[in-house]
Q: What sequence folds into this?
């Protein structure tokens, strides 16, 4: 009988402990939700800015110029690359147009999303720097586009593979995930390792 009573007391104690709300978790969730709502509000306002995309005339040209720039620069920071969407283009073109289309931006505040995108870019650029191609090899590249999807005012050309032919063979590049199109201008938008 004492064992049953002891077991019942433990179970009841555990149940009450489980039902107690942790105020720290609720506060953290509330702060995150407020940040997310504020981010969505900011992006909706920015969507009407109509900023032009400073890009290239085709997907292939955008990819080629990006690879040339990667090879020519010693920087691993994406902010130095003119052929990759810059922060202003992310804030006023990329992010407002992908909001609401099932991307992780739908559930991530802008500040956190920027950090994630930036870390992906740094890792991808590090891998691209290791690829055995030269600028002269970029005369013949093949860009395999998996799909083209509309996101708001933009189109995203999802890149499956970029093949660079070198004297030593073919180099496959998978770090370029998409090229963004706005009107008749194209620019590399998303990198990932």
A:
């Amino acid at each position: 009988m004492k064992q049953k009573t002891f077991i019942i007391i433990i179970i009841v104690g555990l149940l009450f402990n489980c039902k107690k709300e942790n105020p720290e978790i609720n506060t953290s969730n509330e702060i995150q939700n407020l940040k997310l709502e504020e981010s969505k509000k900011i992006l909706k306002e920015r969507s009407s800015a109509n900023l032009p995309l400073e890009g290239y005339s085709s997907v292939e040209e955008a990819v080629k110029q990006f690879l040339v720039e990667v090879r020519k620069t010693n920087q691993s920071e994406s902010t130095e690359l003119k052929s990759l969407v810059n922060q202003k283009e992310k804030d006023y073109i990329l992010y407002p147009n992908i909001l609401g289309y099932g991307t992780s931006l739908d559930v991530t505040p802008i500040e956190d999303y920027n950090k994630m995108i930036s870390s992906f870019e740094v890792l991808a650029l590090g891998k691209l720097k290791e690829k055995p191609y030269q600028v002269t090899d970029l005369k013949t590249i093949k860009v395999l586009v998996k799909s083209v999807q509309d996101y708001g005012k933009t189109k995203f050309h999802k890149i499956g593979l970029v093949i660079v032919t070198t004297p030593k063979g073919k180099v496959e590049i998978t770090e370029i995930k998409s090229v963004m199109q706005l009107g008749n201008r194209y620019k590399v938008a998303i990198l990932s390792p």
Q: What stands out?
A: Strands lie at 141-151, 154-166, 169-173, 176-182, 185-191. The first strand starts at residue 141 and ends at 151. The chain has a mean pLDDT of 85. The helical segments are 2-19, 23-46, 59-72, 87-98, 110-129.
